[in-house]
């Protein structure tokens, strides 16, 4: 029995030795380093051709009138003009609200205007020029000047913020300081509710408060006026959308007393129809 076991063990050792020896021979036959060829020498000597203006023009062609080379800048100059409200109001009044901005992501010049022409009361409007500096991806800080037109026109210094609040509420709040220590605060909130891809319902609230009474302009201290509106627009294109809606104006405190003394209603409701566009 021992002889059989020894014989089997000896045969296994010989087979293992033969396999190891064959592997050693195969490794010995492999070259220690790759052979250099003429193609490899040519590849090592290759250097890319320098880009020309023609190459860049071919890579960034003019697409539908838009020169793509202008978008190669990390912070290009951009601009936009939008008219949020251009509308007829019940009672043959005409109102507008628009804005334009020019500049870069690091800072832009904003022009804002809002006004109303009403038969028997003339035209009241304001024009603002503000420099906006972004504080993050959603909010800007603005500073500049404002001019109110009309018989009792007034100039203001302005400081405010604007941006997109949580849940996509568009917010704009600005504080103003005028001559004689007069001060004013205006805040506006808008929201867009998409009923369909083209039909959009937009609630809007704007509030105005003053720091002191100004009888010449019919202004009382404190919260003086709140305008709440609801507009339904249909976007034939994103850049063009007619709308209809309703707006309710509320006057409070001393401002309401001035309005009543002039023979007008402190609260009034108006149907509106207009168009919104931008480019």
Describe the structure using short key phrases.
279 residues, alpha+beta, 12-stranded antiparallel barrel, two-stranded antiparallel sheet, elongated
SSE blueprint:
Layout: H1 2-29, H2 38-44, H3 53-59, E1 62-63, E2 66-67, E3 78-89, E4 93-104, E5 107-118, E6 122-134, E7 139-148, E8 154-165, E9 169-178, E10 183-190, E11 193-194, E12 199-210, E13 222-234, E14 240-251, H4 253-261, E15 267-278
Antiparallel strand pairs: 1-2, 3-4, 3-15, 4-5, 5-6, 6-7, 7-8, 8-9, 9-10, 10-12, 11-12, 12-13, 13-14, 14-15
Rounded to the nearest angstrom, the distance between the terminal CA atoms is: 102 Å
Q: Would you tell me the structural class of the helices and strands?
A: alpha+beta
Helix fraction bin? 10-25%
Tell me about the biggest sheet? Answer: 12 strands, antiparallel, barrel
Strand content: over 45%
Describe the strand arrangement of the main beta sheet, using strand numbers: 3-4-5-6-7-8-9-10-12-13-14-15
> What is the overall silhouette?
elongated
Order of helices and strands: HHHEEEEEEEEEEEEEEHE
What is the alpha-carbon Rg in Å? 37 Å
Low-pLDDT segments, ≥5 res? 1-13, 15-34
Overall pLDDT metric: 85
Query: How many DSSP-defined strands?
Result: 15
Number of helices: 4
């Amino acid at each position: 029995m021992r002889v059989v076991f020894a014989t089997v063990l000896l045969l296994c050792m010989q087979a293992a030795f033969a396999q190891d020896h064959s592997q050693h021979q195969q490794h010995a036959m492999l070259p220690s380093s790759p052979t250099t060829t003429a193609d490899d020498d040519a590849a090592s000597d290759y250097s890319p051709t320098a880009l020309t203006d023609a190459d860049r023009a071919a890579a960034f062609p003019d697409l539908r009138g838009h020169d793509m080379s202008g978008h190669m800048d990390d912070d290009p100059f951009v601009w936009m003009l939008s008219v949020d409200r251009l509308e007829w109001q019940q009672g043959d009044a005409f109102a507008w609200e628009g804005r334009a901005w020019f500049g870069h992501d690091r800072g832009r010049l904003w022009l804002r205007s809002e006004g109303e022409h009403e038969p028997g009361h003339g035209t009241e409007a304001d024009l603002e020029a503000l420099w906006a500096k972004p504080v993050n991806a959603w909010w800007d800080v603005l500073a500049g000047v404002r001019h109110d037109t009309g018989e009792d026109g007034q100039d203001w210094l302005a400081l405010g913020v604007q941006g997109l609040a949580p849940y996509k509420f568009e917010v704009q709040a600005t504080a103003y300081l005028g001559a004689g220590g007069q001060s004013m605060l205006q805040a506006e909130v808008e929201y867009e509710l998409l009923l369909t891809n083209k039909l959009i319902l937009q609630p809007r609230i704007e509030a105005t408060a003053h720091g002191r009474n100004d009888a010449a302009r019919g202004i009382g201290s404190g919260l003086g006026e709140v305008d709440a509106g609801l507009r339904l627009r249909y976007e034939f294109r994103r850049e063009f959308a007619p709308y209809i809606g309703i707006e309710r104006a509320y006057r409070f405190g001393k401002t309401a007393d001035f309005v009543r003394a002039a023979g007008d209603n402190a609260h009034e409701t108006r149907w509106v129809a207009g168009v919104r566009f931008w480019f």
